[in-house]
Amino acid sequence: MIYEHEIPKGSRLYFGKSAKLKRDIENRASEILYKNGYEEIVTPIFSYHQNFSIEDKKELIRINDEFNRDISLRADSTIDVIRIITKRLGRSTTHKKWFYIQSVFRYPTYEYNQIGAELLGSSKSQEILKIVLSLFDELKIKPLLQISNIKIAKILNEDYNIPLDVLKSANIEYLLSVGEEWIKKLIYIKKPDQIDDLIGEIPQKIEDELLKMKELCDFIEYEKIIIAPLYYAKMRYYDDLFFRFIEKNMTLCKGGNYKSENLEAAGFALYTDNLIEILEDKGIK
């Protein structure tokens, strides 16, 4: 039996103060993004191409168009933004900075409100990271920042035959069993300064990627920061420097460098629903 007041599990309802807080976050974010030269885009809810960004196809909510071709509800915004700007609007605009404020949907009935931005033709993680920090500063919160580098996971997979599933699941037992002392050290380092202690003790490919992480940490000068060299993001397109903000075991934002349509890019997605929960817990209205 479905009661009149019921809504599907995973769908979102905001009203009164919570709706006002959501709108305030979105307004502040859009002001910051406009000041930094970004323009807004709202992508279609329906897409032919979501399978290019979502690793687990079971997460897609699928329907069919009038020709019985597969369509899915928007489960990720990044790939559609890149595809629409480069393929559909390429002759209409040369602008490279875009942001969106919209929902994504996952099977069976999960809805996630997001604020995101994409910087096309550039892999400047520091620029988009500064924008996220500006918004958090306005909201007076300082979540933990984790810096990673997806290239390290791919090097371990390609050169040392460590399955990506091991890194996705953070299987420490397997990594310790590999027997490489430098891999053990990568498991346990947490602070950017600890990277200096590994110079000369690890393969050059890994060292180069660690130094890129340290350079990003030094550039932003953020207090609450850890590094996780072996972290592997489950989003298909991230392939280089990667960051995420965490508060009370909730992810508030993910972002980093990636390639799409043979184009270098950097971007982030802020999880508005989790951010609202954090701010409500702090009594911010």
Characterization of this structure:
The protein is α+β, with helices and mostly antiparallel strands and 285 residues long. The protein has a single domain (17-281), classed as BirA Bifunctional Protein, domain 2. It contains 9 helices and 11 strands. It has helices at 17-35, 78-88, 125-138, 150-160, 164-168, 172-177, 181-188, 204-220, 272-281; strands spanning 39-40, 46-47, 62-64, 70-73, 97-106, 110-120, 144-149, 225-227, 238-247, 250-260, 263-271. β9 (238-247) and β10 form a beta hairpin. The model has no long low-confidence stretch (mean pLDDT 92).
Write the layout of secondary structure elements.
Blueprint: H1 17-35, E1 39-40, E2 46-47, E3 62-64, E4 70-73, H2 78-88, E5 97-106, E6 110-120, H3 125-138, E7 144-149, H4 150-160, H5 164-168, H6 172-177, H7 181-188, H8 204-220, E8 225-227, E9 238-247, E10 250-260, E11 263-271, H9 272-281
Parallel strand pairs: 1-5, 7-8
Antiparallel strand pairs: 2-4, 3-4, 5-6, 6-11, 7-9, 9-10, 10-11
Low-confidence stretches: none
- Helix count equals 9
Relative helix content: 25-40%
CATH superfamily: Bira Bifunctional Protein, Domain 2
How many domains in all? 1
Sum up the structure in keywords.
BirA Bifunctional Protein, domain 2, 11 strands, single chain, alpha+beta, 9 helices, three-stranded antiparallel β-sheet, 285 residues
Short description:
The chain is α+β, with helices and mostly antiparallel strands. It has nine helices and eleven strands. It has an eight-stranded mixed beta sheet with strand order 1-5-6-11-10-9-7-8. A three-stranded antiparallel beta sheet has the order 2-4-3, with no helix packed on it.
